[in-house]
């Protein structure tokens, strides 16, 4: 049976704490920290194609 497939990349925010999700900015220095992203590598998405003629 023939198969079809595709690949996708994902980047999602880490939601384990408020700091990691929203981040903070130091008003005195202007430096920011937090806003952590989680990247998922290439994920295969495999499905079956119908073999109708």
UniProtKB/TrEMBL annotation:
Q: Name any Gene Ontology BP term.
A: cellulose biosynthetic process
Give the Cellulose synthase operon C C-terminal domain ranges: 6-40
Xref: Pfam families: BCSC_C (PF05420)
The protein's UniProt keywords, in alphabetical order, are: Repeat, Signal, TPR repeat
Q: Which GO terms describe its cellular component?
A: outer membrane
Designated name of the protein: Cellulose synthase operon C C-terminal domain-containing protein
Which organism is this protein's natural source? Caldichromatium japonicum
């Amino acid at each position: 049976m023939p198969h079809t497939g595709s690949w996708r990349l994902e980047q999602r925010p880490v939601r384990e704490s408020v700091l990691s999700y929203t981040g903070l900015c130091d008003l005195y220095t202007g430096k920011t920290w937090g806003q952590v992203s989680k990247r998922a590598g290439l994920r295969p998405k495999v499905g079956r194609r119908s073999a109708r003629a």
